[in-house]
Specification:
This is Lactate utilization protein. The protein has 204 residues and is an alpha/beta fold. 36% of the residues lie in helices and 21% in strands. The chain has one domain (3-135, 179-198): Rossmann fold. The protein has helices at residues 3-13, 24-32, 47-52, 54-60, 75-85, 114-118, 137-155, 161-165; strands at residues 18-21, 40-43, 64-66, 90-93, 97-99, 104-108, 123-129, 133-134, 180-184, 193-198. Bound molecules: iron/sulfur cluster.
Length: 204
C-alpha cells in the first residue's frame, strides 16, 4: 500500500473521509459538486489554499465568501467574519502535518481557523499537499514545530525564536504563533470534516 493510500485508510478508520487528486482542476471539479448558489464559505489563512487558487475560486463562484483578505477590512469586521465562519455552510483550511496514523495536526495563533475546523461550519474541507504527510504522530509534532511554525512566523513577520533559527525554542512570548496545536483524531459526524490531498508540494 502506498503512503497516500495508507493515510486515507487510517483516516477512514478515524471516521474522517479523504480523497486524493492529481491536479487542482480535479479538486475544483470535486468541490463544485458540493457548493451551491448562495451558500456561505469561510476559509482559514493558508499558503496551500493560496497556491491552489482556492481563495480566487471562492471569490469567483456563486457562493458568499467570507473573505478575510478584503481590502481595507477593519479589525472589527475581521472578527465578525471569524464569528460568521461558525455558521457557514463550508469552511476551508490547510493542514500543517498529516500523520500516516490518520491524524490531522494544525497550529494556530488566535484559534480563528482551529476553532471552526473543530465545530460550527456544516462541512469542512482540509486541503493538503503530499509534503505534509509524515510517518507518525511524533514526526507530525516535530513538523509543526520545526517546519510549519518557523516558516509561518517568517511569512507573518513574527518575532519568534523559530523565525530566527528555523527551529522551535519552546518560547512563551506574546508573538507565539503556536498558541494552539490541535490534533484531530476522529469526529461524530463522519461526513463533516473531509481531507483532500493533492499530489503536489503545497505550503509548509
Ligand atoms: S513555541 Fe515559539 S519558537 Fe516554538 S514554534 Fe511556537 S512560536 Fe516558534
Amino acid at each position: 500500500m502506498d503512503t497516500v493510500e495508507s493515510v486515507l485508510t487510517n483516516l477512514r478508520k478515524n471516521r474522517i473521509p479523504g480523497k486524493c487528486f492529481k491536479t487542482s482542476r480535479e479538486l475544483f471539479g470535486y468541490l463544485g459538486s458540493f457548493l451551491f448558489p448562495g451558500c456561505t464559505a469561510g476559509a482559514g489563512d493558508s499558503v496551500t489554499l493560496e497556491q491552489l487558487g482556492v481563495y480566487d475560486y471562492l471569490r469567483s463562484g456563486n457562493c458568499v465568501f467570507l473573505d478575510k483578505y478584503t481590502e481595507g477590512i477593519t479589525k472589527n469586521e475581521k472578527r465578525a467574519l471569524y464569528l460568521a465562519n461558525f455558521s457557514a455552510d463550508f469552511f476551508f483550511s490547510g493542514i500543517n502535518a498529516l500523520s500516516q496514523t490518520g491524524k490531522i495536526f494544525n497550529l494556530d495563533g488566535n484559534g480563528s481557523r482551529a476553532a471552526p475546523i473543530i465545530y460550527g461550519p456544516k462541512k469542512v474541507f482540509l486541503l493538503c499537499g503530499t509534503n505534509k504527510i509524515v510517518p507518525d504522530d511524533e514526526a507530525a509534532v516535530l513538523r509543526v514545530r520545526n517546519t510549519a511554525a518557523p516558516m509561518d512566523a517568517r511569512r507573518l513577520g513574527r518575532k519568534t525564536p523559530c523565525a530566527k533559527t528555523g527551529r522551535c525554542m519552546d518560547c512563551a512570548g506574546p508573538e507565539r504563533i503556536c498558541n494552539y496545536m490541535t490534533v484531530i483524531q476522529g469526529q461524530f459526524d463522519e461526513n463533516r470534516i473531509e481531507v483532500l490531498i493533492v499530489e503536489q508540494d503545497l505550503g509548509y
